[in-house]
Every structure is written in structure tokens, then in C-alpha cells.
Amino acid sequence: MYDFLKNNKSSNIYWLKYPLQHFNLTLKLKAQETITLLPKFGEHLNQSNEEDAQNVLQYQEYNFQWQEKLFSQYQFTKFGDIQNCVSEKDLAFHRSIHQFNKKPQKVFTYVNKEYAFPLPFKSKDYGIGLYSSCIKRLNLEIFLNDNFGKGESMHNLFKSEDDVAFEDEWKAMYIFYDNSKYDEDNNLIFQDECLLISVYHNTKYNYIMISPDVNNESNPYAVESSSGYLDFEYFINVDFGKSGCGEEFKDLLNKLLKKMEKKQKHLIKFVMPPLETRKYYISLEIESAKDFDGDIYIEYHVKVPENIDSVSLLTGRTHLNKCLMNEDIHMWAFGHIVDFEVESATGIDPLPLRIFFEVISVDRWGRHRTEGYTYFPLALIPGFCKKQLSCTRPEELNEIDAESRRFFVGGYHLIEDLEMLVKPQLYATNFRFVSTGSIAVHWTVISHSHSPGCHSSENQSPVPHTSCSELIQGADAVLKQYKRAKETLAAATKSLIRAVDSE
């Protein structure tokens, strides 16, 4: 089991918080404790041999910065002689050796500009799926492979651009152990370079991949060579420059706590709605989407009837989301919550709110395409509801023009007024609707209105109100008391007049 864990090397991904100049990788290497390291018979009296054996059994520590170039004996001999330097890269290595007095190392590196090894996830078909799909849909394969001989060159042009764009997203660094054989003059006899660590940096999303992952002394890795395992082992430690990270995390938690307490106070402070007004609180969650293409986000628009007022923001969008595979179904999980409130007069049945959704995709070139529209009426009835909304996308009648325009420029908006989704028969159109994917939503509606006489209860616990509601309720109470006093005075005056007349 120990050997399995020692040779079971797996990769890991780390998201970067600090720039890569703070990145520091520590490699500790030592010989394995085997019988070959024991001193020979008769040499145990020699103290120097015992000290040498003890030194071999101790870890030798190596520190590496990001893109730090260290040279093996072969590279030191090659780049040290200017006659062997042809390219600008070779000349840069030659200057580095002589300017900084670098020495050959047993543990050396390959940096990104050497392109010594393939980058991670490299695939021949990576990144050209969209291009191939467009060529197939537009039936342009025959045109690209015609007798003029331009098809292959155009295909290679697209492919080369995709490959360059892919490589620009990754920077690599490799750490090797030099197990090569040299003669007395340091001339190479047999080259054997053992890969210890690979570090990849994704410049687009700012994370690094380390292979193998960080480990500890209790479970070191074995050094692998072309002829089998060597009698060496090593372990890895990485410092991302997180000094003071604990204090920053503590400050972040304190800020979040203050925000939560402030929001909690706002929620606890219940506000009574105005007189003869009913308020509706709606919490709508855009849960997920499925059966679309690419990375998508969703825009929403809420339109309220004329007899309903709203003080909330009624338009917005979700975050950009990537596709997840769930039982061969393309899924996008959003969990985006929209909270808003509306109000209407009491005694009437308000019309439903009209909520419109537009699903928009973003490709690798930054082009935004409309993937579908949908609409549903949200009735202001208290309770919980959920719904699966089917989406349709407007498309030009000429299929070739529609596909080519959609691929090269992202298409354009064919729907100018969203009311067309509600009553399409009232609009003259020169396009058709194509079914696409669907959106899953659910929502909760809560209604609340002013309860008459709630302020007259003496045993009711005081409820905090805003200054506006307190002013309205105070004025209403004064008017009622004035009206009651006026009626009492009128009744008393009337009885007094009758008594005087009777005398």
C-alpha cells in the first residue's frame, strides 16, 4: 500500500489570489534508504564515509520561482558556447549563464518559451468544433475543397488561429532531475531526464495546475527514469505568497457579519403599508436552463399593468454560466434570485405581471447571440409556484443567410417589441420561430394590506413604522377624534336648544 501511494501521482488545481511573482515552489530530494547506501565492510571505521552516507540520507532542498531557468550539465555546456546559439532564445540563455554566473544543476527546469512539452488538455479537435459545425451546416465543405486548391489552406488558417488562441491561455514550467551520463570532460554520453513536477498557469481564468500535487515527507514520490524507478524520492511544497491571508480573511468575515446584521435589522423592522393599499412581495428564482449552446446568461424584463406601481428594479440579468452534463443533457444551473415588490389599491383584482426572458450565449470570440425568448404571466396570488418555460428563437426565412449571419456576426435582433411574444397575431413578421431549450423558474408571492383598527388595540405591542406611515396614521386618528368630538358637541347643542324652547 505504501508503494502504491508513493507512485500514485495526481494533479491538483489552485486558484490564485496573488500575482505569480509571489509563487515559490520548494522541492526536497533525497536518496531512498536502501541497502546500497550502507558502507562497505571494513569502511565503517572511516568517519568520512559515515558522514557522506548521512548526508545522502538527508533531504536536499531546491527553491524555484515562476519561470526561473536552471540549467542541466548538457544545457550548460550547449548554451555556454556561443557557437551553439542560433535563436534569440539560445542567446538569452547564453547571456544568463555568463551574466549571473550560473552553474549546472542536478535539478533543472524548462520554462515556457522553450515549449519542450505539450500543454494540458491539448487535442487536435479542441476549439474548432464551432468552425466545423458551421462548415457542415452551410454545406461549404465542397467549396473549401474545390479545384482551386484554396480549401486546405483556409482550413489550416482557421485551425492555426484556434491553436494559437489555445496556447496563449497556458504558460508552463517543468522541473527535471538530470540522470544523464557524462564523461570526464562533461560531454554527454547518455541522456536521461526525469520529469519531477509540471506547473501550468491558465492566464485566462488565473489558476495553476500542479502535477503531481503537493505532498509531505510521510508519503514522498519516487523519481521515475526511462530505465525504471531510481533510488530517489522527493516531496513538494508550494507557497502562494499568502502572508497576512488570515488577517484578510478575518476582516472579510467581519465585513460580511456587519452586512448580515444590517440586513437582518432591515428585515426585522416591519413596515405597515399605507391605507387602502395592498403590497405584493415577489421572490423569483431563475433556477436552471437546458438544451442550449455554449456559455449562456439570461436577461429578464418585468412589465407591470397600469393600475400597479413598483419601486423595484424590473430588469436585469444573471451571471454567465458554463454547461454541465447531467445524464447526457446539457444543463446550466443559475440559482439567480430576483426580489421585487409592487403595490395596488385594495378592493380590486390586479392583472398579472408579464415577465420576459431572453437567453443569450457568448462564444470564445466574445460574440453574443440570442438563443431563445420566453414569456409567462405571473398572477399576484399568494403562494408558491414553479414552471418550466419553453423557449423559441426568431430566425430568418432564408436558412443560409440566417446561419451565416449568426456565425460570423452573431445575428441581430428580429424582435423589437417584446409584446410580440404575448400577441404574435397582431404583428406582421418576415421570420419564423424555432424551438430551442427551456428555463426552469419558481416563485413565491406574499401580499399584505393595512388592517383597519390595528392601531386602536391597547394591548398590541408597538410596531416600528417609517415616519411617513406614522404621520398618516396620526393624521387619521386626529381626524376621527375631531369628527367624534364634533358629533358630540352637535348632539349636546341640539339638546340644549330643545330645553330652552320648552321653557
UniProtKB/TrEMBL annotation:
Q: Which organism is it from?
A: Pieris brassicae
GO aspect biological process, one term: cilium assembly
Q: Which InterPro entries does the entry mention?
A: C2_B9-type_dom
Q: In the UniProt record, does the keyword Cytoplasm occur?
A: yes
Q: What is the name of this protein? A: Meckel syndrome type 1 protein
Q: Which GO terms describe its cellular component?
A: MKS complex
User: Which UniProt key words apply to this protein?
Assistant: Cell projection, Cilium biogenesis/degradation, Cytoplasm, Cytoskeleton
Q: Where's it found, cell-wise?
A: Cytoplasm, Cytoskeleton, Cilium basal body
Give the range the annotation lists for the signal sequence.
none
Primary subcellular site in the record, as a coarse category = cytoplasm
